[in-house]
Amino acid sequence: MNQNRRKAMVVGITGASGSIYGVKLIQTLLEVGYDVHLVVSNAGWRVIKEELGWDVSDRNRLIEEHFGGNEGDCVYHPINDIGASIASGSYLVEGMIVMPCSMGTLSSIASGSSDNLMARAADVMLKEARPLVLVPRETPLHAIHLENMLKLARLGVRIIPAMPAFYFGPTSIDDLVSFLVGKVLDNLRIEHALFKRWGDHNEQPGE
């Protein structure tokens, strides 16, 4: 194994509301030295445009503008590129995060359909026993949603719904976004300083 290989993570952004979560996740991973292999669904690009106001017509330029100049590199893979490196289990990455994850993508992963690069990359994580984290963003949830999540959880997939906490005293949307991204990174044992932890919150001076 190449000891000089930089750690890499696959990140998927779908058409679920909450593209800001995925953006913050990518920026944080790049800042701490991870390479990011990015896959965005067609609906994901639409939501990025609508929620963040970004011009998505030139996607490579957009990625360089928002994710360039960091410790790690962001590599963009089109959703239909089934020949991409991350479509093969022989390509080494630390894991994959889909954030936010639509119910359609979650269903595709649960069924093992591998009908596009995002679903195929997730299937690779399952077959190679690598960490897979899904951050569903939908409400309310019906029985099919819940059954698909249970099926994946039983396979070892980490299901981290987009449910921010308030015990740390958030004062902005960015605080809430950072908390959720931090919870995802905690589950992958990636160090960060995105939010104040409960123990830190309660410690008194001199203790």
UniProtKB/TrEMBL annotation:
Keyword flag Transferase: yes
Keywords: Flavoprotein, FMN, Prenyltransferase, Transferase
Stated name of the protein: Flavin prenyltransferase UbiX
General function of this protein: Flavin prenyltransferase that catalyzes the synthesis of the prenylated FMN cofactor (prenyl-FMN) for 4-hydroxy-3-polyprenylbenzoic acid decarboxylase UbiD. The prenyltransferase is metal-independent and links a dimethylallyl moiety from dimethylallyl monophosphate (DMAP) to the flavin N5 and C6 atoms of FMN.
Superkingdom in the source lineage: Bacteria
Binding residues for dimethylallyl phosphate: Y167, K183
Top-tier EC class: transferase
Classification of source organism: Bacteria, Bacillati, Bacillota, Bacilli, Bacillales
GO molecular function, one term: flavin prenyltransferase activity
Family the UniProt entry places it in: Belongs to the UbiX/PAD1 family.
Reaction catalysis annotation: dimethylallyl phosphate + FMNH2 = prenylated FMNH2 + phosphate
InterPro entries per the UniProt record, alphabetical: Flavin_trans-like, Flavoprotein, UbiX-like
PANTHER family assigned to the protein according to its UniProt record, in alphabetical order: FLAVIN PRENYLTRANSFERASE (PTHR43374), FLAVIN PRENYLTRANSFERASE PAD1, MITOCHONDRIAL (PTHR43374:SF1)
Residue ranges constituting the Flavoprotein domain according to the UniProt record: 8-188
Enzyme Commission identifier(s): 2.5.1.129
